[in-house]
Amino acid sequence: MYPEGVLMRKVFFAIGAMILFGVPLFTGAETTNFTATAKITTKVKLSATSMNFGEMDDAGTYRAEAVISVEAPAGTSFHIAINGGLHYAAGSRWMQGAEGLGQIAYQVFKDPGFSQQWGDGDFDGTFPQGTSLAGVGMGPKTDFIPYGRLVLRETPPPGYYQDMLTVTVHY
């Protein structure tokens, strides 16, 4: 046999030589594969300001505008749809008065000449009298103007009137 400590030195020397010369200390191996994936999505951002017809104290025609902003990657086709609002009835959008004051009809158009109603008739159909507005992403934010018109034939009771419209961008 070997004198005390010699065997240990030989074992350590052998292990050191294997490590030094890159000889693996493993006795077996198993392999498998995995898949690397990524999904690139179109990032579209949408925002809108309020449409405020202001103070009214007499019969007449009132106009207002809002701003709908869409930020979409360059070349991305989209459609902006506006629903019928919370108080849609009988083919019209209505602002409801606080505490049951009544309602005021109004319209939203795609053009300042008030000839093309803006709705969602080609998508969700909550306001079938109008269709969406088509656009193409430019990269940076692009603004679109909805033109509001409100015709008062008689002055309703004083108070605040409002409706909530939902804007959806389909891409």
Major sheet: 5 strands, antiparallel
Number of helices: 1
Helicity level: under 10%
- CATH domain class name: Mainly Beta
| Strand-pairing-aware structural class | mainly beta
What name does the CATH topology carry? Immunoglobulin-like
- Integer average pLDDT: 88
Give the number of DSSP strands: 11
Radius of gyration: 35 Å
Following the backbone from N to C, one meets helices and strands in this order, namely HEEEEEEEEEEE
CATH superfamily: Fimbrial-type adhesion domain
List low-pLDDT spans: none
CATH-level-2 architecture? Sandwich
* Strands ordered across the widest β-sheet: 2-9-6-5-10
What does this structure look like?
The chain is mainly beta and 171 residues long. It is built from one helix and eleven strands. The chain has one domain: Immunoglobulin-like (Sandwich). The strands form three sheets. It has a five-stranded antiparallel beta sheet with strand order 2-9-6-5-10, with no helix packed on it.
SSE blueprint and pairings:
Blueprint: H1 6-20, E1 45-48, E2 60-65, E3 68-71, E4 77-82, E5 93-97, E6 103-109, E7 133-136, E8 142-144, E9 147-152, E10 161-162, E11 167-170
Antiparallel strand pairs: 1-3, 2-9, 3-8, 4-7, 4-11, 5-6, 5-10, 6-9
